[in-house]
Amino acid sequence: MSEIRTVEDIRRRSGWREALEERQNYEHEKRKRELAEERERQQARKAREVEAASTNWYAAVDSRVHEHLKNWLWNAIDDRIREHLKSFTNMYNDVAGSVIGKFGARARKELETAIDKLREEFRVGIGLADCQNLGPRRSLLSR
Predict the structure, then answer these.
(1) Per residue in 45-85, pLDDT tens?
(2) Of 7, 12, 36, 83, which has the most beta carbons under 10 Å away?
(3) Are the CB atoms for 140 and 112 separated by under 8 Å?
């Protein structure tokens, strides 16, 4: 039989611990490199943005003025639309009211004429065609 080995002998000879440590160190170094590269990319991007902002100040001012005017113009347009709708609504109400009033007056006149004809027929029917005054004439619609 072969010689009995301890766990420590087996580990020392197989080298698995060293391989594991190397792999962990490699992954750790890889993460460190990736983080450093990401930091460098962010710093470079910030530097480009600062440089672009400092050299392109006219565009920055122009965009702020444009934004201000855009908001102001939209508010002015909204105000004009509100005024237009208010005047249109008032005009529509006036026109619709006058039309409804004319229809009402025409209907009232037609009904009064029809009522007068019915009264006349009633007078003729009861033999009072000569009598003009049966009492005060009251319109039902004029109340």
Answers:
(1) 988 888 777 667 777 777 788 888 888 888 888 889 899 88
(2) 12
(3) no
